Amino acid sequence: MPDVTKIQAQLQTQVRIVLVDTSHAGNIGATARAMKNMGLARLYLVKPKQFPHADATARASGADDVLAQATVCATLDEALVDCSLVMGASARLRNLPVPLLGPRQCAAKVLGEVTTLGIECALVFGREHSGLTNDELGRCHYLVNIPTNPEYSSLNLAAAVQVLGYELRMATLDVQTEAILDENAGQLASADDMERFYVHLQQTLEITGFLDPKNPRIMMQRLRRLFNRARPSEVEMNILRGILTSAQRHTHQPD
Ligand code: SAH
Question: Of 2, 160, 177, 220, which has the most beta carbons under 10 Å away?
Answer without folding.
Answer: 160
